[in-house]
Amino acid sequence: MRRARLLIPLAVAIVIAAACSTNTSSSGASTSGGPTEANTGKVNMLSAVDPKEGKTIQSQVLDPDINQAQSDYTVELEADGNFEQDVKIRAQAGTLDLAMLPQPGGLPDLVATGNAVSLEDMGFDIGQLEQTFGKPFMDLGVVDGKHYEIPTNINLKSMIWYPKDDFDKAGYTVPKTWDELMALSDQIVADGGTPWCVGFQSEGSSGWPATDWMEDIMLRTAGPDTYDKWVKHEIPFNDPAVLTAAQDFGSVMFHPNYVLGGAANTASLAFGDAPLPMFDEPPGCWLHRQASFIPAFFPDSAKAGVDYDWFPFPSMDTEGGPLFGGEVMMAFRNAPEVKDALTRFSGEQVQCDMGGYVGSSRISPNLQVSDDCYADQILKDSADVLRQGLQSGSARFDASDLMPAAVGTGSFWTGMIKYMQQGPDSIQGILDDIEKSWPSS
Amino acid sequence: MTTAATQEPGGGGTAEAVPPPRGAALWRFLLGLAGALAIPVGTFYLLWVTFDLLRRGHASRAIVVLVAIVIGSAGVFLLYFAVNRLVDLLPATLREGVRPWVFVGPALVLLSVFLVYPVINTVLLSFKDAHSKTFVGLDNFKFVFTDESMLRAIRNTLGWMILVPLTAVTTGLVFATLADRLRRGEAVAKSVIFLPLAISFAGAAITWRLVYSFRPQGFGSNIGLLNGVVIGLGQNPIDWLTQHPWNNLYLMVIMVWMQTGFAMVVLSAAIKAIPDEIVEAARIDGASEWQVFRRIIVPTILPTIVVVTTYMVINALKVFDIVFVMGNTEANGTEVVAERMIHWFFIGGNYGRGAAIAVVLFIAVIPVMVWNVRRFREEEAIR
After folding, report:
1. CA–CA separation, A327 vs A47, rounded Å?
2. What is the pLDDT along chain B (383 residues), one digit of tens a residue?
3. CA atoms of B351 and A441, how far apart (whole Å)
């Protein structure tokens, strides 16, 4: 009987001890340089691309280039409509291998969760990566002296789209300066048309297309140096330079005849629906400023180079370079197959094929990828403009994507929506509010 | 050990009569604790080992799920069985003191792991900075009660808590009373009203987004139901969801639409449980139908009304999906507290603020719960 009484606590103690020991063995501390975990045969890749494009990437790029090229593991792309939230949850839960971050501004927060693995720890050669992708792009992901990302996609943002056939028929010419662009807008109004189609609604992320407008103008009125200071908060958000840019933006948006449907309604118009009137006969609008991915939202029947084409956002006070956004890939598990998948995904073969599938709008940040990879002339041209901008040093990364999340995906987005709804006089108060929301640390 | 052993002869058949000595109480506590822990820990260990094995062997997902179900149900049953048998081996003095813990314990352990621990951790986080590194005192709470958008969220949530239960319960009560008098088709009528409850909040919100849909002139025809009516009356279409402060009411309508059916079904059941004699006696005494409703039906089913209302108040306090799906909350002024919590946790990247909002929300629920429990106790006392 005495023995029996001892039995339960003893059994429990053994069970607890056993549970603890298996627990610690699989999450061992990482030593520098090289994978520390065993191959599990599967790599997941979380991404914000839409599910349709995700399937295309899986079947036309990942399966042939990675999954069939080796037999150690398979990569599975997860297209997640709720990426911003899920990536944080999964990073903390430890169920994430690779994540394609559409906004590098969120990177420090993810590193702060403690589960992100630096490229140094995985055994990557940073010097070589800097040659392949350019130092500025690699520097986007530096936290506490370690690199945490490899760029995998660029969007050219400074693009103005127009209905080419109607545009040529009406005798309009592509403007080279802001003044010419405004003159063209006036001409279109005089001819009885409406120049601009604008839509800023994007569900939980509403407002981002408006911040892109602001950034393009800021880069061209204040110049790249002031732009950089703005991004790093070395000048306040309510600085006169920012106010000027916002007012120039407002001069287009609040002009009584420029914007189809009026400025206030842009806040409730989905950004993907906004360019559609451009394809009406006659066109409901003639100009649409949006990044290189927007043709995915055009009608299926519209042909590139015939029904639509684009020109770069024109220069203003200064010769502004192209504005670009980009996606970077982060790793969250230090295992050999994760490293291999990351290497292959950012490598020439995959990057070339990513620009080659029908409907792709992906420009590769890998400098070894040749122009021949791209699916169409539009993508080729945008890659050219970007390369020139990057080489001359005038290209700038999307400011809101670099600012802290509270501003870049919060008050800046909301502020621009409020600006549209409340009218030109509200801007000073809105900029003051955004300045107040900048995190102190 | 020795104390327990020397006390043993005193036990046996007369254990209930004799108060258990100190040593036995200690043993009972320790054994109870062990018993309480044995099952959760055992289950965890069992699942851990099997999954580890399966993961290493690259098992297919179907097998993993199957194993989880088999071990999760049959394994846990066996564990209960085994631990119960072990309790039988204990001396009679201890046996019946330990046994309840073996059965209640696992629930308590799981409750503390999944409920108590997160609450404590959230409270801790609410006093720390955005990345939960340093303590910042009451800064996050200061933010909750000074930020313009947060104050609007609190105001809006109060509106939800008052208007939604009021409207849903009132309409539910009216429907229940009227449906009760239908000669035919009561089931059909009630089913139609009850139907929206089967839809998830997010699904309902997406449906209603089509009702409120708006497109500016030049962007195609308006497909929204409401704007269809407005245009039919010869007016210009309206962007419903940006009409502050009315847009808050438009969102509340969705929840009322969903919850009225629930209120109706529960209240209808309560009405049917009222003894016919009372109602008939009132009618014979010459009471009008309104008087019967006012003085007989409502007072009799009051406890049910209270329970339904509390349920709805808490639901309204937690509302998130509807507001989130409709989007643009800050610019439209439709923020609610739970939505701000998610916003700051996952979009704003500030865990401190997110946790502080969670704590405020948690504290706000307490009075409702206390009131509910107290009412429930009073009911029990009367019975």
Report:
1. 10
2. 444 444 444 444 444 445 555 677 788 778 878 877 777 787 778 777 777 776 666 667 777 778 778 877 887 788 888 888 888 888 887 788 788 888 888 788 888 888 999 999 999 999 998 888 889 999 999 999 998 899 999 999 999 999 999 999 999 999 999 988 888 888 898 999 999 999 999 999 999 999 998 888 888 888 889 999 999 998 888 889 888 889 999 999 999 999 999 999 999 999 999 998 999 999 999 989 899 999 999 999 998 998 899 889 989 998 999 998 887 888 888 999 999 999 888 877 788 999 999 999 999 888 888 887 887 788 777 66
3. 14
Interface check A255 vs B, CB under 8 A:
no
Residue B335 near residue B329 (C-beta atoms within 8 A): yes
- The whole-angstrom distance between residue A304's C-alpha and the CA centroid of its chain comes to 23
3-state DSSP assignment of residue A29 = coil
Residues of A with Cβ-Cβ distance to B5 under 8 angstroms: 2
The reply to whether B139 touches chain A by the CB within 8 Å rule is no
> Which chain A residue has its CA at the smallest distance from B217's CA?
A261
> Mean per-residue pLDDT for A129-153?
89
Mean pLDDT across chain A:
87
Task: Please name the residue of chain B whose CA is at the shortest distance from the CA of residue A437.
Answer: B147
pLDDT at residue B4, rounded to an integer: 42
Q: Which helix (H) or strand (E) is A150 found in, with range?
A: strand A150-156
Distance CA(A156)–CA(A292), nearest Å, equals 5
Three-state DSSP at A75 gives strand
Q: Assess A355–B contact: CB distance below 8 Å, yes or no.
A: no
Helix (H), strand (E) at residue A47: strand A42-47
Buried b (16+ CB within 10 A) or exposed e, A202-216: bebbbbbbbbbbbbb
- Tell whether B77 lies on the interface with A, counting CB pairs under 8 A: no
Distance CA B257, CA B198 (A): 12
CA distance A44 to chain B (A): 15
The whole-angstrom distance between B247's CA and the closest CA on chain A is 13
Quick check: A435 contacting B, CB < 8 Å? Answer: no
* Residue B290: burial class (beta carbons within 10 Å; 0-12, 13-18, 19+): exposed
- Chain B neighbors of A421, CB-CB under 8 A: 242, 331
Pairing of strands A42-47, A74-79: parallel
Q: Which of A250, A208, A248 is nearest to A403 (CA)?
A: A208
Cβ atoms of B162 and B319 within 8 Å: the answer is: no
Q: Do A276 and B214 touch (CB under 8 A)?
A: no
Terminal Cα distance for chain A, rounded:
64
How close, in Å, is residue A374 to chain B by CA atoms?
32
**pTM > 0.80: yes or no:** no
> Is A440 in CB contact (< 8 Å) with chain B?
no
**Tokens 């009471």 correspond to what residue?**
B287
Confidence of residue A200 (pLDDT cuts 50, 70, 90): very high
> Does A112 lie at the interface with B, CB-CB under 8 angstroms?
yes
B38/A8 CB distance under 8 A: yes
Arithmetic mean of pLDDT, A326-346: 93
Residues in chain A within 8 Å Cβ distance of B38: 8, 11-12, 15
* DSSP codes joined into one string, B234-253: TPPP--GGGSTTHHHHHHHH
Inform me whether the pLDDT recorded for A128 exceeds 60: yes
Nearest in space to B156 (alpha carbons), one of B380, B316, B364, B345: B316
How many other CB atoms sit within 10 Å of the CB of residue A400?
A: 24
